[in-house]
Write a structure and sequence with these properties.
268 residues, mainly alpha, two-stranded antiparallel sheet, 4 helices, 2 strands, 2% strand, Spermatogenesis associated 17
């Protein structure tokens, strides 16, 4: 009985202990659950971080290998392109040199022939000398023609002046202005006055149209005088010959003889 009683007492004590511990466990269940969750999350975080770090390292290795592969492929492509460009530049330079040599040879042989150009230049020199000689001859003839025209104009001016100053001619009673008694021979104008015949102008000429030196104005009345050049070019030949003076009529010859006889009488 004593043993039964001790056993019951132990059972009661065990039940109390069980209920007490159950209550304690129920009270600490939430806190322990939170602690377990915290521990599990921290542990799982450590595992995930370790795994992610491992994956990151492996990804870096893979990227490094891939980037190296792509970079080497790109460098090989760049080297190929640079080699191709260098080769094409070399080919172009050699082609230019070949074309230069060929074009120079072709131009020297078929286009710019030295001997043909030399003969051409010699022909040009000969033609130039011939043209220069002709131009010199033409210049000389034109100069002579200008001189003859100038002489004709001077003679025409003198004749016109003699016609205007015919009243100054010497007479038997009174010597003229140009026939001074102190001269050994008459003046040139005096001889010219003896040769020409006085003829009044057809109309009055204003003083503004008469030249100061005695050369007639183009609008003034003019006397007949040869104004053409004595050098006339022949139409049939290239030679230039002087024109012969016109044949004077019989009346003019008679008048010239009378004028000469009068001048001789005056001198006597």
């Amino acid at each position: 009985m004593a043993g039964q009683h001790a056993l019951d007492r132990k059972i009661q004590q065990f039940r109390k202990e069980y209920f007490y511990r159950s209550n304690q466990a129920e009270e600490n269940r939430k806190r322990e659950n939170q602690a377990a969750i915290l521990i599990q999350s921290w542990f799982r975080g450590c595992l995930e971080r370790a795994y992610l770090s491992h994956l990151h390292k492996k990804a870096i290795i893979i990227q490094k290998i891939w980037r190296g592969f792509t970079a080497r492929a790109r460098v090989r492509q760049m080297v190929k392109a640079a080699y191709f460009i260098m080769k094409m530049n070399f080919y172009e330079e050699m082609a230019v040199r070949i074309q230069q040599r060929w074009r120079g040879f072709y131009a020297r042989k078929h286009i710019h022939d030295f001997y043909a150009r030399k003969s051409y230049m010699e022909g040009i020199i000969k033609k130039n000398n011939f043209v220069r000689e002709e131009l010199d001859e033409i210049c000389y003839l034109q100069k002579k023609e200008r001189e003859s025209l100038k002489m004709i104009k001077e003679q025409t001016a003198k004749v016109y002046q003699a016609h205007r100053l015919h009243y100054l001619l010497s007479t038997k009673q009174c010597p003229g202005v140009f026939n001074s008694p102190f001269r050994q021979a008459p003046h040139e104008m005096e001889l010219l006055l003896r040769q020409v015949k006085h003829s009044a102008p057809t109309r009055l000429v204003p003083k503004s149209r008469v030249s100061f030196l005695g050369i007639p104005d183009p609008a003034a009345c003019s006397f007949s005088a040869p104004t053409e050049s004595p050098w006339i070019k022949s139409t049939r030949t290239c030679s230039i010959r002087p024109a012969l003076p016109p044949i004077a009529s019989r009346n003019h010859q008679v008048m010239a003889v009378k004028a000469r006889t009068k001048s001789l009488d005056v001198e006597d």
